[in-house]
Amino acid sequence: MKNFKIGLLALFCNISMVSFSQESDSVIISKIYSEALSNEWSYRVLEQLCKEAPHRLAGSEGSLKAVNLLFKKLQPIADTVYLQEVMAKRWSRGKQEEAMIISGGKSRKIPALSLGGSISTGNNGIKAKVIEVNSLEELKKFGKANIEGKIVFFNHAMDPLDMSPGRQYGKNVWQRFSGAKEAAVYGATATVIRSLSNSLSEYPHTGIMRYEDSIPKIPAITISTLEANNLSRELKQNPDLEFFMHTWCQSLPEVKSYNVIAEIKGSTLAEEVITVGGHIDSWDTGEGAHDDGAGCVHSMEALRLIKHLGIKTKRTIRVVLFMDEEMNQVGGKKYAEWVKFRNENIYAAIESDSGGALPVGFACSANEKQYAEFLKLKFLLEPYGVTRFRAGGGGVDIEFLEEMQVPLLNLVPEPQRYFEFHHSANDKFEKISFRELQMGSATIASMIVMLDLKDVFN
């Protein structure tokens, strides 16, 4: 009977300790969200970034203004702030692109953007007939006899019935990334790409493309989803219509640039580092609010919240604002090389690079045991609508840490509207919701604190 009573007492104590622990966790998280939702600091930092340093392609004047601005903003909220030098390969759009559909003796100008990395059309521009294709198989079927001397129009739309816009982006990005080199094999003079967006708008969406040295280089532009629909319809009415494009883009010599890094030193496990970040650079068409100004201030605000609330983490919390995610990922590569050279112990890495919409979950790449422990955090964030936890996460900048077996996480915001803004002139500060942005910051801060407090990845 005595042993039975002792067992009951131990069980009661364990239950009490678990309940106390859960209550304490909930209180910490509640304080994080309360502070985030009642303070405009990071929202105003994002506004300043977008308005004073828009058009932040790596190596540009805008990107260097952003480095200086973010460095200064981090100083009051971190123990240490420093710059990490990288060499940025530059590409410039030059003058505004010209594009025109010519049919039946009439011409109509339409908005267009060169793809990042594209060559220019030359001084006279390019005018040619158009052939529309929806797949590489269709391109191959048409062959050189039908394609040579023409402009290839890649018009495979993102499936509107797929509830995962990100998945559709992944399935269709080949058109933008490698469409020009594929079309050049068959003698095309240029390519026109349907914007990778699930919205119907007049905004063209740009992005990176690549050539191969063994294949002739041809210019590549993108047009909006509405104009892609129009061009497709007009081609059915007049297969002999012509398309004119004139671009002035060029690649330029690389220049010195920087990652911006800030840290709060840990207490008992300071040699272990939790990295959190977004990327500074953005496309030159908009203000880079969602992509990825939001990710930068998510990370900065997470640091501020931890510092301001006096939360003492065991591990060092390091914000890394990466340079050149959009073109060549030199910032992410440099950081991984630096970590490896210093033989650092990166406990976990978190990236925010999916916009500033309402956070709904996290994705995580880790081993089976670590992932199982990670899932145990879900109930703590469910009261805040963060319910979608899934395997397979990370981000373009932190993926270079994967070879070191670092667990990788990325914040998952509500995805349905992200591709309205992505890589377009529509990506501006006014499209950001204060409340949703702050919810994202609080969610990341809460995840950092819980990973540290509960030793999730041990």
In short:
By secondary structure, the protein is α/β, with parallel strands linked by helices. The chain is about 40% helix and about 25% strand. The chain has helices at about 1-35, 40-50, 60-75, 135-145, 165-185, 225-235, 290-310, 330-340, 370-375, 380, 420, 435-455; strands at about 80-90, 100-105, 105-110, 110-115, 125-135, 150-155, 190-195, 220-225, 240-245, 250-265, 270-280, 315-320, 345-350, 360-365, 390, 410-415.
Describe this structure in words.
The protein has 12 helices and 16 strands. By secondary structure, it is an alpha/beta fold. It folds into 2 domains: 34-88 and 254-453, 3-Layer(aba) Sandwich (Aminopeptidase); 96-251, Glucose Oxidase, domain 1. The chain has an 8-stranded mixed sheet, with helices on both faces. Helix 1 (2-37) runs antiparallel to helix 12. The longest helix is centred in the N-terminal third of the chain and has 36 residues, at 2-37. It starts with a helix and ends in a 5-residue tail after the last helix.
Give the quaternary arrangement of the chains.
Answer: single chain
Domain count: 2
Given as residue ranges, the uncertain stretches (5+ residues, pLDDT < 50) are 1-21
| CATH architectural label of the largest domain | 3-Layer(aba) Sandwich
What name does CATH use for the topology of the largest domain? Aminopeptidase
The H/E string reads HHHEEEEEHEHEEHEEEHEHEEHHEEHH
In the sheet with the most strands, the strands line up as: 1-10-12-11-13-16-14-15
Percent in strands: 15-25%
What percent of the residues sit in helical stretches (DSSP H or I)? 25-40%
Q: Separation of termini?
A: 39 Å
Q: What is the number of helical segments per DSSP (H or I, 4+ residues)?
A: 12
Rg estimate, integer Å? 25 Å
The overall strand count is 16
Task: Give the overall silhouette.
Answer: elongated
Structural category is: alpha/beta
